[in-house]
Amino acid sequence: QVQLVESGGGLVQAGDSLRLSCAASGRAFSNYALGWFRQAPGKAREFVANVLWSAGSTYYADSVKGRFTIYRDNAKNTVYLQMTSLKPEDTAVYYCAAGRQRAYVTYTQRGNFDYWGAGTQVTVSS
């Protein structure tokens, strides 16, 4: 069992930066793929970024590529999402997720992940 708690959300202006954190409890944290998703009002939850367990390889949605960086600190059981050049369209509730290690899984779909945090609100004003 893994429990995830996000923090770091808030209200910022367009062009600002923000770092989200997701602290995990439980064992074998380094064996999980970790991801960030977001959900804007009236929209489906969408993939933002992931980082795998081995070599920390990462993958990003096109909408955030070049602006967001995901990284993990296995010693601290924490995954981060560094967001720069924020835009009003980045406004959403951001969720952290953890998925067990599986073969042939992209970890870009909600169903790829087994555990979810409660989310943290990010609001970007224009």
What is shown here, in short?
This protein is mainly β and 126 residues long. It has strands at 3-7, 10-13, 18-25, 33-39, 46-51, 58-60, 68-73, 78-83, 92-99, 115-116, 120-125.
Describe the structure in your own words.
This protein is mostly beta strands and 126 residues long. Helix content is 0%, strand content 48%. The protein contains no helices and 11 strands. It has strands at residues 3-7, 10-13, 18-25, 33-39, 46-51, 58-60, 68-73, 78-83, 92-99, 115-116, 120-125. The strands form 2 sheets. Strands 2, 4, 5, 6, 9, 10 and 11 form a 7-stranded mixed beta sheet that branches. A 4-stranded antiparallel beta sheet has the order 1-3-8-7, with no helix packed on it. The mean pLDDT is 94.
Measured on Cα atoms, how large is the radius of gyration?
Answer: 14 Å
Query: What profile does the largest beta sheet have?
Result: 7 strands, mixed
H/E order of the elements?
EEEEEEEEEEE
Distance between the termini: 40 Å
Low-confidence stretches: none
Instruction: Kindly report the average pLDDT value.
Output: 94
Question: How much strand?
Answer: over 45%
Overall, the morphology is: globular
Could you say which structural class the secondary elements and strand pairing correspond to?
A: mainly beta
What is the helix content?
under 10%
> What is the count of helical runs?
0
Extended strand count: 11
Descriptors:
48% strand; 7-stranded mixed sheet; 4-stranded antiparallel sheet; 11 strands; 126 residues; 0% helix; single chain; mainly beta
Question: Helices and strands in order, then pairings?
Answer:
Elements lengths: L2 E5 L2 E4 L4 E8 L7 E7 L6 E6 L6 E3 L7 E6 L4 E6 L8 E8 L15 E2 L3 E6 L1
Parallel strand pairs: 2-11
Antiparallel strand pairs: 1-3, 3-8, 4-5, 4-9, 5-6, 7-8, 9-10, 9-11
